[in-house]
Amino acid sequence: MGMLKPWHIIVLVIVILLLFGARRLPDLARSVGQSLKIFKSEVKDLTNDDKPDQPASGGTTSSAGTVPPATSGTTNPASPPSSGGVTPPDAEGPKA
Fold first, then answer.
1. In a domain, 60, yes or no
2. Residue 60 and residue 67: Cα distance in Å, rounded?
3. Domain-located, residue 55
4. Do 8 and 16 touch, CB atoms closer than 8 A?
5. Global model pTM greater than 0.85
6. Segment 45-83, tens digit of pLDDT
């Protein structure tokens, strides 16, 4: 009863062909393959997320003494942003 015989497989293939049709089987197989590929990549990403990041160098590094670089731009937060040369419609003046 637990043995799968060759004629069982043939009957199963015939039933699948009758249910889905010969045209839809390649599309079905392609979509299942793409789904498995996405699933495998997501599982790989999850296992990589679980591993702790190790420093590239063998020595110990301390981030306590690092200071972010200063910006050299002259930005004034009090000044309004530039309109890019576009004049607002109400600033054109009265139309005659």
1. no
2. 18
3. no
4. no
5. no
6. 998 887 766 655 555 555 555 666 666 555 555 555 555
Across the chain, the runs of DSSP E, i.e. the strands, are none
Q: Which residues contact 55 (CB under 8 A, 6 or more apart)?
A: 61
SS3 call for 66: coil
Q: Are 55 and 61 in contact (CB under 8 A)?
A: yes
Residue 45 lies in a domain: yes
The number of folded domains in the chain is 1
How distant, in Å, are the alpha carbons of 56, 65, 82 from that of 92?
60, 54, 17
Q: Which domain holds residue 31?
A: 24-49
Separation of alpha carbons 13 and 7, rounded Å: 10
CB 25 within 8 A of CB 17: yes
Answer yes or no: is 8 within a domain: no
